[in-house]
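Before the break, one more example. Copy the sequence into your notebook; we will annotate it together after we see the structure.
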Amino acid sequence: MGPGGGAQTAAYRRFLRLGRPDGNGQRPLRGQLGYRVVHCYGDPKVTEDLIESLSRYERPMICTEWLHRPMGSRFQSHLPLFRRFNVGVYGWGLVLGRTQTNRAWSTMNNAPDPNPTEWQHDMMLPDGTAYDTELVAVIREQVGEDLLMKSVEMTPESMQDLHDRGLIIRMGPRALDARPGETLGRSLCESAEAFGPPKRITATVGREELTGLAAHPDNEEFLLIADQETSPMYLAIALCMRGDFEEKVKTGNLVPKDLVLLRCRYNDPEVSFFVLRNGMPHSAAIVDLDKSPATFYIAESGDLPRDLLEMRKYRLKVDPR
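Here is what the structure looks like once it is written out:
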């Protein structure tokens, strides 16, 4: 048949705390494997030693059995380890069920406990509740995809580009054709009555990651009035409407160029005052927690809902370079 992928087998297994090697009968295959398939239920030290011992073969590695909480093999300890060595993994159990993979082997024969306090496998209860409250955060942190965002300066040109795209409305000074003795006014935008009377908000940003992207069903005014000595603030704005943005996230097609990251400038009438149009996903962050956090002002409707968007695997981060 002429297969080109190479033979694959679980030629490396370590089950116990001491890392007892197994699979000796498969040693003749080890130099011919297309990639390394390993089993290791040991603690982080045992697992790391095994991975390092196999790295000399310079082949991709997959660990097909590993989770054993009572023996010190946990998501919190092992996912960072597997990620650091670029080892692929998958687990036996997802939802607690009739296969009882939540029970450790030792409980099967000796004093079996149908509901052990510490599970071996499995991640959630049948109702979808996570077994471990930290589990969801750990998985998202370790298996997500970082999108490093390069910033652009908030200049009249960059703000006009966003204005021309229909994403913002600039509120910079624009002279109207008023005759001597005459005062003219022009409406820039109007709020929807459905979301209540207008209100003014002061907002302070003290986070370094662009978490919590939000979108609103009505316009939102940004008034960047602050001390220039505060930590620089970065404002990420999607370059597409909410529906298109959520579709990119859902299908795994989100890329950095789908957003613009503005390095905000305060107290400049040409750029510091603008309206973010309704439906535009956005988030803000700073990069220097040693300085005073960034503070600014927002004007919006009093009952305007704030819809947080599900980012799934994506994490947006400011590229400091």
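The chain has two domains: 12-143, 146-318. Residues 162 and 168 are 6 Å apart (CA to CA). Try to locate both features in your own notes.
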